[in-house]
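Recap from last week: sequence in, structure out.
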Amino acid sequence: MDRPVPRAKVSARAIAALAFAAVVVVTLDQVTKALVVANLPEGVVVPVVGNALQFLSVRNPGAAFSFAVNMTWVFSIISAAVVVAIVVYARRIRSMWWALVLGMLLGGALGNLTDRLFREPGFGRGHVVDFISTPWMMPAIYNVADTFICVSMVVFVLLVILGVNLDGTRSVSESRAARDAAAADATDGTTAADGTDAGRASRTADGTFDDATRDGHTPDGRRHDALGHDAT
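Predicted structure tokens:
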């Protein structure tokens, strides 16, 4: 009977890192939004670094970067689903990199979900506060939560490309595994060839001596009879 596979222990450090990252992102997002609502009138452009970085307060009923403005309920549900999925999968995380990435994603999703649930015009239909404008990079207006969501997705892709798993192990690509197998085969073949050459050399040396003795001569040139007595 097969024994049940033991369940991996929960990594307290990874969960703590994920929770810490999420709390930091949510706090930064909500504090900056509160400051914008209290001090920056809507539609007023405030240059921060010339035209490269500006503050422009807007209310966004859609997704990140002001996309799909007529689908507020849909994105509220999606954000809630993302939050639930991250919480469920948090127990499987052993890698600190994955913990930070998913923590940033969780914090960003919670930041915007908080706006959609509790801001006007109503529960689940609230408008997200956007205020960061970088016209040289994109025409959309975004916020701190959107920024961390994008950063987390970039690092997410990098971890997948590098083969870093949730448990911190590294996945070996098929091409690399094939190269390692070919190198191992080449090493085994070289070892076998060296052993064959050594055996042939040994047999050649023994054969030289046997040919000499087969004719009744020893390597010193003296002839012996069948019993080994000196025939000279």
